[in-house]
Design brief:
CATH architecture: 2-Layer Sandwich
Distance between the termini: 18 Å
Number of domains: 1
Oligomer: single chain
Largest sheet: 4 strands, antiparallel
Structural class: alpha+beta
Strand content: 15-25%
Radius of gyration: 15 Å
Number of helices: 8
Helix content: 40-55%
Strand order of the largest sheet: 2-3-1-4
Length: 151
Amino acid sequence: MEQTLVLIKPDGVQRGLIGEITARLERRGLKLIAAKFMQVSPELAEAHYAIHKGKPFYEGLIRYITSSPVMAMIWEGPEAIAAVRQTMGATKPTEAAPGSVRHDFALEVGRNLTHASDSPETAFQEISLWFKPEEIISWERSTDPWLFGKN
């Protein structure tokens, strides 16, 4: 099973969208295996956004992600990365597909509610950065065979 990191960023937390976003991922069939509500430290923010260091928007990203709590989660399922990214919608909300989180609840790239890993390699790195192994719970869900069982 594939795993991916999802962050509900400060704007999503402040707007009370944690339940809405989480419910959409659960209804999609993905399984939550780790979650924590946390204040992001400057060190964690810098490590998470290291790829953008030196870009004009980098300092703003750090200020933003550390400005208010985030909900950090790991979701699991077949093609979880693609499923989460499709559920969230395009990074630019005005280009997001109707019915996606960003289409339904966002207007600006700088306030697009969520972060989701974009590849298996990135997911592995981000999960390792945000969660300790003992914080990840492997569990069997009774509906799994009905969601992704083989015929």
